[in-house]
Design a protein that fits this description.
The complex is a heterodimer of chains A (418) and B (312). With 418 residues, chain A is an alpha/beta fold. Chain A has helices at residues 19-29, 44-55, 70-82, 93-98, 100-108, 133-136, 151-165, 195-201, 234-263, 290-303, 321-328, 350-359, 382-398; strands at 13-18, 34-37, 63-66, 87-91, 114-119, 144-147, 174-179, 187-192, 223-224, 272-275, 282-286, 308-313, 315-317, 333-338, 367-372, 405-406, 409-411. By secondary structure, chain B is α/β, with parallel strands linked by helices. Chain B has one domain (4-309): 3-Layer(aba) Sandwich (Rossmann fold), CATH 3.40.50. Classes of the chains: A alpha/beta (418), B alpha/beta (312).
Chain lengths: 418, 312
Amino acid sequence: MVEATNDFVQEKETIVIKGNISAAYAAKSARVQVISAYPITPQTTVVEKLSEFVDNGLMPGTQYIKVESEHSVMASVITASMAGTRTFTATAGQGLFYMFEMLHWASGSRLPIVTTIASRGAAPPWNIWADFTDVMSCRDTGWMTAFCATHQEIYDEVLMSYKISEDYEVLLPKFVAYGGFILSHTSKPVIIEDQDLVDSFLPPLPDEKGWPHLWIDPERPLMFGNLIMPSGFYYEFRMKIHDAMIRAKEKIKSVAKDFEKTFGRNYGNGLIQEYKMEGADVGMVIYGDLALQMEQAVDDLREEGYKVGMVKLRYFRPFPVEDIIKIAKKVPLLGVVDRATAFGSPTGGPVSSEVKTALHEVEGTARILPMINGLGGREVTLEQQKNQLKILIKLNETGELPKDMLYGTYWDGLLEVK
Amino acid sequence: MVKIKEALESCQEEFFLPGNSCCAGCGLEIALRWAMKALGPNTALVTPASCLNVVVGLWPKAAPNFPFTNMAFAAAAAAATGMSAAFKAKNYRFPDKVWGEMTTLVFAGDGGTTDIGIQGLSGAAERNSDFIYCCYDNEAYMNTGIQRSSSTPHGAVTTTTTLGKERYKKNLPAIMAAHEIPYIATCSVSEPLDIYDKFKKAKSIKGSRYIHILAPCPPGWGYQSESTIELARLAVKTGSWILFEIENGITKLSKKSQPLLDPSKRTPLIEYLSNQKRFSKLSEKDIIELQERLDLQWLKIASKIKYQENPT
């Protein structure tokens, strides 16, 4: 390992890189101080690139711990964060499941840990391709969860994440999820920002005292996490995590604005990004990389004269209830596409169930058609997405539902079983 | 070894304060008190689920007078790794402050070490993570109600081995030795000055250091609370609990165990076993077998030491 003696220089440059490399660059731009990681497909090139950065002295002072499992990954970034350092890790699928216990430990400690997820299907059978069931399964862990649709968005969202998570009114860990292989292993041009500009955008690294609520400091001995009786503040701590999560919505919006002002890239209001929803007859709510192709589908159908629009959902936690209600008042029918499962939930899809909940008892909102597609990386073509939009148009005009409905949800692209 | 007078003079400061919730006669309390006397104030402790979680005091009480972090059961070694990494990262930014002098300490029970925590501990030891890992061994899951662990000795009755445990105690110090870490030691709470010395030495070494302390448990082992020291001492005197250090691969018996290389100096094992209710299911034949097994273990140690002295 090369000992870094000087600070590194990063001038603004556009490079053609994989989504995973974009995540690694973002961690470097954010000057993370402690990284802990364990390799798992399709996240591996994130941790490989970071090793390269650290070994070549490009991340001065950064400690990189190569642990023996994901449980240890999260345990080590938790204590590193407790001690008052900016931390980063990346994982996927089974790895995320294996660190599940520690996820609660991170949010319960109110630590601003940022973790990228190259989402993949849950085994068995083994599956390493795009499917957001991994991150969706962490719904109730107290982690904020954002999705990226592009390679650039991965870099940008990681930067925004530190600003949101480290806000003293938020102090919650955060996932930045993107589809395994589809974004992690394909290459696109990504703008890596000038270091000075990134430094001016992000909050300063925690000072010697660390975070305001928790520290490990012999001068100020603190006992953390000891057993608390039901009459103690446990209940109130839980309420405060929910409160912080809800407050984070405004922070997410203001950070997205700030980001656009600083770097010139727009991500809607931060929570959602509307696309051609004005004057639309029907709309589609979608997240992750499939949202990018759906824009093309919307464009194509608009050219054919269909009034369709879409909403890119950028956050699952906190869930943008207010924005979803607003959207659902613009059109009579909304499709909601999940590339993830929530078995036994109202729709079988985590986001469509969530949208239905958000709209429950709200007058004058759209009917919802839940859809599921692309599980375990199953290809979802442009034609298929255009057809999904056409299904909405047909349902809106004639009331006719598609075939292949299962308990009220349209499962698109299933294999024929003979 | 540090002299009693000297120890009394330099060990006045208490870091694990009175008023904690330890049972009377708790071995853990003695272990932690003396470890902290040796390590001093610039120490941050991580403990996984164990008796220690509870005996430090329920919120808002806190007996430790030093940074103390509760951690998930399987996570102690990894958490300590993260903590010591953070101290290094802070030392990079604030080089003139205390961060470069911090000792990261794990205090974990035998369940948290030999069972659920062993993967994390093995990983950390292989990386040579910079911490002292101390297993206080009361030879069962005492916090949850005396269930067997892999550190429970053969024959011991627990709430999940009602007829006495069939298998033998897992030899964690040997497993740690296989990781070739710079320092390994065993201690008994009957020898606080030995604990003090070994933690002092451990503090002066970098990398992964492992200390395994026998910590008798009155309710778990079934004896009167005033007998903790006596039992811990009998464990040493019978040779059942061997005090040693392994420094850079070289095993050295500690003062109290050194003479026991001579079998005639060893107190018969039955004196240790017969004073604890947990061994009440052992037959005479069992005890004879255990004594033979112990004698064989000592022969192995003797030959190892002989080989170290004259490796031909």
